Amino acid sequence: MAIGNAGLAARIEKEASTTKPFKAFLGRYFYLFMSLVLAALVIAGFSRTVNASLFHAIPPRPLLLWIHGAAFSTWVVFFIAQSALVRARRVSVHRLLGWFGAGLATVMVVLGFTIAVVMTRFDTVVLQQKGVAAFLSIPFADMIIFG
Questions:
Q1: Residue 86: which of 29, 18, 6, 39 has the closest Cα?
Q2: What separation in angstroms does the CA of 70 have from each of 36, 76, 89, 94, 111?
Q3: Omega into 59 within 30° of 0, i.e. cis?
Q4: Other Cβ atoms closer than 10 A to 68
Q5: Does 17 score more than 90 pLDDT?
């Protein structure tokens, strides 16, 4: 019986030693990797609509929509930079830039509410779409949750 327990203990020790490097790797790179995954998802999600709905839109979209896109793109780049700074153990710079992030987040919430109203009006008045206002609660909820 003691030999069986010793064999089990050796097997558990071997498995623990192989998962330890993986856990260490995950602990070091998880947030940086996830920030890059988020950026890839944002690019994939908006790649189909940005060209036709913003860059080559007819009629042209309001300037505020371009500002909205720039601010929200800056947020994704900022998230990657913050994750990379922590990974590089530059926590003091990370904390200093955190104030920029707080300001950017505030601007994004205000801009999100504003662009929701502006684009609802644009879709209703300029594009003559019906029932657009019924979906206004979705961006409002997004901004409340983000804030």
A1: 29
A2: 18, 10, 28, 22, 11
A3: yes
A4: 21
A5: no
- Within 10 angstroms of residue 85's Cβ, the number of other Cβ atoms is 19
Mean pLDDT of 4-16: 62
pTM exceeding the 0.90 threshold for the entire prediction: no
Other CB atoms within 10 A of residue 125 CB: 10
Q: Which residues contact 140 (CB under 8 A, 6 or more apart)?
A: 113, 116
Residue found by looking up tokens 């189909």 in the block: 48
Q: State the pLDDT at residue 39.
A: 96
**For 19-60, how does the pLDDT look when each residue is reduced to its tens digit (9 = 90+)?**
678 788 777 889 999 999 999 999 999 998 888 888 888 899
| Domain boundaries of the chain, sorted by first residue | 30-146
Residues with Cβ < 8 Å from 134, sequence gap 6 or more?
none
Helix boundaries (H) for the chain: 2-50, 63-87, 91-125, 137-146
Q: Most distant CA pair in the chain: distance in Å?
A: 82
Residue 130 · residue 100 · CB < 8 Å: no
CB contact at 8 A, 101 and 82? yes
